[in-house]
Amino acid sequence: MSALLQVSDVHVAYGKVEAVRAVSLDVADNEIVTIIGANGAGKTTLLNAIMGILPLRGSAVFAGADMAPLDIEDRVAAGLSLVPEHRELFATMNVEDNLQLGAFRIPKAVAARSFERVYTLFPRLKERRKQLAGTLSGGEQQMLAMGRALMGTPKLLMLDEPSLGLAPIIVADIFRIVGELRAAGVSVLLVEQNAQAALQIADRAYVMELGEFILNGSAKDIASNARVAASYLGFQHEGESAI
Amino acid sequence: MNTTIMLFLLQDGITNGAVYALLGLALVLVFAVTRVILIPQGEFVTYGALSYAMLATGQVPGTARLAVAMGVVAFGLDLFVVRKSLRLRRVARSVALNIAFPVAILTVATALASPTTPIAVNIALALLIVAAIGLFLYRIAFQPIAHTSVLVLLIASVGCHLALQGLGLVFFGAEGLRGPALSSAALTIGPLRFTGQSIAVYGLTIAFIVGLWLFFGFTLMGKALRATAVNRLGARLVGIRTTLSGQIAFLLASLIGAISGILIVPITTLYYDTGFLIGLKGFIAAIIGGLVSYPLTAIAALVVGIVEAFSSFYASNFKEVIVFTLILPVLVLRSLAAPAVEEEKD
Question: What is the pLDDT of residue A83?
Fold first, then answer.
């Protein structure tokens, strides 16, 4: 299978400090890939660089096209979408307007179908469609951020800590929906501190520490890796059920 | 004081206030979308008014040539940006917008210039010229520094104001000009006489406010502009180009400025530097509205207009002082009410 996203030997620096060093990763069509790691490992920095928010050194190829000359808006048009850590919603606009703007780059007819799809995935958003985004609960805001990204019918959805600050029951809901995206033909690159939940739905995983990937492999292998289990899953031996 | 005088002053104040409201709304719009405090707004007023007045006498105003010159510079900047990956569609679009558009206006203006050209044509030409200048001004002066702080943008804005004002002196001379009225009709209600001009001022102001409301509330592009104002990064992440939003904001602002100018120039003589003072009054209204609230700005503009009318009757020497003093209590109140906010860094 050809890679949808191919990132090779990427460095990202803030001034002279390199936050991401020599990182390579790929995501195939219809695949869910997760990057796990502690706070400050450079996960968010890496996603932001892939999206074009931060400049990167190295190569990033998406859907067969080199992304170096493209700015954020062009990458969105090419089918790459990021749900950022802080969600970046349009707080003073209502849910429906937020979603409609998510479809800014696609034709009106397609947008109508996107609305249906997003409302089916997140019935909660349909109930709240006239409410201002800023007045939603944290979980609803996360759903709206994901919904807004999906409105643009991306090929690859990058999620930055979707579970951050949310109640466990909502986290479970959100991860269930991320799992369902694969059926809809969307690949997912998921960055998470909640390694347990992420490894359960992912096909493959990368483990990031201090700006570098120290491990990668199938999600199963990573979950059963002794070092990962000790550092990120909070238990010493494999075989126990997560959650 | 008798009621008739009071009614006259109120009428006068509301007419001026309506113009300030238009300018104030444009300032709020531009600030919200681009974080630029648009000092050259006054120059849009002067350019619109005086271009219209010159066209009415059968001359081609220098602003038409300025638009062409600015278009060429804007095109150069566009070329520089895409130099690494020459995409033909982008270059073609840039040629159409930056070269073909202003050249077409200049050609039409030259071809049609005569003292007998219909008023509507002159208005359309003046509006197009100023719209082009507004658009290119954003491309040349603000788009390359769009990511910098509000202070840097403000300094650039002051620079643009000074440059455009100087060019205004070159184009229009130091003598003031007056343009022909839009209509000579008049309507008398009781002691008040409404000229066609003042009715046009009310009508256009209301039409613009309703139009802006419809644009921002119900069109995708209007919502995209609001989105850029609310959350710049969020807007970029859904594919809204901040440069496109900025261009539209400047286009609207220059159009509003030019219309205001065309509305005033039959009532008072305008000089190349009059626009600045008019723009400042719109700015006072915008500040009272906190540079965010459209309805507050519109109401404040009417208050500014009325205060100006009354103070020019009672203490005409202090007219400007009184009007600009309005801003002090508002600033004091606002600084007490709102906690100090650090400027966002993006």
Answer: 96
